[in-house]
């Protein structure tokens, strides 16, 4: 997994809210952020494909994370309680354009994706790539991103996820 990011420290009050949306027909969960301000960088999508066929899509607007979409779910292991790690501060996560490919609007990364959720499925942790040391950073009020020592995404924490809509 080599999705390198840049981090800009911000105040807690600058963290955007997360709007969760379930698509009951496809089981797709979208966590949309409301980024503010002007930025530069990649606009498009970063598709993280798991070796088991799972898909996470990061939508990026001008280099800033705009949404996370769980398009095809990996097997989700549930545990009684799942406590996110203490976050190491509030940041704005940027995905810069690559100088060698400035017009590229989509990036695809193949790696392992593992998911764990609490019994209520309100807290979901996605581990991306090989397990490695990382720190959790708050990029939105209810979204943490784990970043390793080389500034690569190592995981995502979705917090306060609403329940899947009941089927009639």
Structure description:
This protein has one domain (6-99, 107-158). A hairpin with a 4-residue loop joins strand 2 (18-23) and strand 3 (28-33). The protein has a six-stranded mixed beta sheet, with no helix packed on it. A six-stranded mixed beta sheet has the order 7-10-11-14-13-12, with no helix packed on it. The protein has a two-stranded antiparallel sheet with strand order 1-8. The protein starts with 5 loop residues before the first strand and ends in a 10-residue tail after the last strand. It has strands at 6-9, 18-23, 28-33, 44-50, 55-61, 64-72, 76-79, 91-94, 106-111, 113-118, 124-128, 134-140, 143-148, 153-158. The chain has 168 residues and is an all-beta fold. Helices cover 0% and strands 49% of the residues.
Q: What's the topology here?
A:
Blueprint: E1 6-9, E2 18-23, E3 28-33, E4 44-50, E5 55-61, E6 64-72, E7 76-79, E8 91-94, E9 106-111, E10 113-118, E11 124-128, E12 134-140, E13 143-148, E14 153-158
Parallel strand pairs: 4-9, 7-10
Antiparallel strand pairs: 1-8, 2-3, 3-6, 4-5, 5-6, 10-11, 11-14, 12-13, 13-14
Task: Provide a compact summary of the structure.
This protein is 0% helix and 49% strand. By secondary structure, it is mainly beta.
Order of helices and strands: EEEEEEEEEEEEEE
**Number of structural domains:** 1
Average pLDDT for all residues? 85
CA gyration radius, whole angstroms? 15 Å
Overall 3D form: globular
Number of helices: 0
Which regions contain 5 or more consecutive residues with pLDDT less than 50? Answer: none
- Cα-to-Cα separation, first versus last residue: 40 Å
Q: Which strand order spans the largest sheet, edge to edge or round the barrel?
A: 2-3-6-5-4-9
Helix fraction, binned, reads under 10%
Largest sheet: 6 strands, mixed
Strand content: over 45%
Structural class: mainly beta
Q: Count the strands?
A: 14
């Amino acid at each position: 997994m080599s999705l390198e990011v840049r981090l800009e420290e911000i105040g807690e009050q600058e963290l955007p809210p997360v709007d969760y949306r379930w698509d009951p027909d496809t089981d797709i969960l979208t966590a949309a952020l409301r980024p503010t301000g002007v930025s530069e960088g990649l606009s498009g999508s970063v598709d993280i494909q798991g070796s088991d066929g799972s898909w996470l899509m990061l939508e990026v607007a001008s280099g800033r994370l705009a949404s996370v979409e769980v398009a095809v779910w990996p097997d989700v292991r549930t545990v009684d309680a799942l406590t996110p790690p203490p976050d190491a501060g509030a940041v704005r996560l940027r995905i810069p354009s690559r100088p060698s490919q400035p017009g590229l609007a989509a990036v695809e990364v193949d790696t392992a994706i593992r998911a764990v959720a609490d019994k209520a499925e309100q807290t979901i942790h996605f581990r991306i790539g090989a397990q490695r040391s990382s720190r959790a950073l708050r990029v939105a009020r209810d979204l943490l991103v784990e970043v390793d020592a080389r500034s690569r995404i190592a995981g995502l924490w979705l917090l306060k996820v609403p329940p899947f809509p009941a089927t009639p």
